[in-house]
Give the backbone structure.
Amino acid sequence: MISDLAYSALLKEVELTPKPGLVDKNNNGSHKDMCIETFYASAKAIKPFIDKFLQLKEFSELRRVGKECEDAMFKATKGVNTHKGMIFSLAVICSSIGKTDSFESLQRDIKILCKDLVKHDLKNIKQVKTHGEEFYVKTKCAGIRAEAQSGYATIFSKSLPFYEKNFLKYGEDIAMKLTLVYLMSFVDDSTLFARGGEKGLNFVKNKAKKILYVDNLEKNLKELDKKMIEKNLSAGGSADLLALTWFLFNFKYL
């Protein structure tokens, strides 16, 4: 059941349309090396590893199996990075779900699992290898590692209650779109930073804030999609947090 939910979260995110700058059913967003079929292949490759993540207890084991999952993803996508960040988060969250007594204790268990993660991974970087590491070196923002170490505070404290409120009011599709825009309005997204620097990051934050509480959501999403494609911007980190929000919401009400 949990592995099916996690797999569904990957599909729900990529199929949500329209999504500014991101791959969806309408277009490939700002990505020239991937399409929706690439994401389907990636999700299919990741699915068998989710049950393994649920059974693992130690972070060292999660890293090992996570690397195996990454290798399977890259093989399925012919070298394209569709879900590397998402694999990390699914490993952490699913491992914690496998150990937890309840949804209420899940965030605590994630914090325990990821204690000192930022210090361990980022404080003594000698050679930058990922967007997340580059983001930390240039901004001191620790990205998804800080998010994991906080027990995914952005999700539990912000996007999850926001999604739940809008889900009850509008249903799943609109709630997901609004939650994506909400996340884009404040998240320090390393994917955005890698593509557009601080200027690109602030451009997206400001545009998202402007369209969050106005009418014509679909029209505004399409217009922002066009602008982000023109500027080669993609909020991949916010998309991952959206998928995780959907996953945790549905886990909460299993």
The CA atoms of residues 239 and 249 lie 15 Å apart. The chain is about 70% helix and 0% strand. Residues 190-212 form the longest helix (23 residues).
